[in-house]
Design a protein that fits this description.
With 331 residues, the chain is an alpha+beta fold. The protein has three domains: 29-52 and 251-328, Beta Barrel (Elongation Factor Tu (Ef-tu), domain 3), CATH 2.40.30.170; 53-88 and 209-247, RNA polymerase II/Efflux pump adaptor protein, barrel-sandwich hybrid domain (OB fold (Dihydrolipoamide Acetyltransferase, E2P), Beta Barrel); 93-206. It contains four helices and 17 strands. The strands form three sheets. The protein has a six-stranded antiparallel beta barrel. Strands 7-8-6-4-10 form a five-stranded antiparallel β-sheet. The longest helix has 57 residues, at 151-207. The radius of gyration is 46 Å and the shape is rod-shaped.
Length: 331
Amino acid sequence: MKKMITLLLAIAISCTAAACGQSEEEMTPAASTQTEDTRQTIEAFGTVIPTEVKNITLDFQANVERIHVKEGQRVRSGQPLVTLDIMEMENTITEKELYLAASKNNMERLLEGNDLSKLQNDLKSAKDIYSKSSEELKTKEQLYTTGSISQSELDSFRRIVDSDKKAVQDITYAINSLKNSKGRENEQQSLEASVLEADLKLLRAKFDKPFLKGSDVVCDVNNGIVYDIGYSEGDAAGPQMKLLSIMDADSLEIEANIPEEFIKDIKIGSSATVTPVADKTRSYTGSVSYIPGRAVYQNGETQVAVRIKLDNADDFLLPGFNVDVEIDQGR
């Protein structure tokens, strides 16, 4: 009889303990759990996102000759993505280079002009003649005072001296006019050359991009994923619309939506475990890398979208994958 009573008491105690445990479990919040090793964790839903994305846009017009990749394709650094027909741009650059060379040749020709040298030599000769005739006039005037020559002879020689003086003045004027003319022409040529040089610099800068290699648009990240291809073969591409985008697959992180009532228990560096919905046998570890300074109201509640940087990400994780997240509280 005593054994029977003892057994009934044991069963009653076990049932009471089980009922209490069930009651406590039902009162536990859905987003906060306690694991077997007494860790307090916050459960959340998240998405795999790239943190580094490049939009490839041309600074010039060019026809799309060939597209080498498909939407969502993984690509490596240096891999050709699109081939462009850039003949028109190359012809424009060559044409401006020829114009610039011609303009510089004209400037050199102006600086080396033979006309100016000839006039300068003529001026030197004219000044010598005028100097000699001026000295001779003094002698003529002395002869006139002594009566050795007549007034008409003196006046005639004075006209010769005046003519020599005018020759000097005319040549000087011609030199100044030529210098001014050449100066204006040289200034115009210099301005034209400056404009051409600026145009060429701008055109060459349009090709000086890390994603351009000759006529090919290439991948400029080590591990990329192509998306949003904006053109088809034969289309005219240009600045009006991006050519395509590349996300850096090495920059994948998790964006987890945390209800506002639990955000106080999360800090930068808090440990996290991530399980992809696509394969729940896989598990990734990481830590909280970013907590934004604002909350967003969505799906009927206020949430904060925190970022989690993974320690062991691999190629299985794809951008856009849904994941289950557990974040350790206060760790």
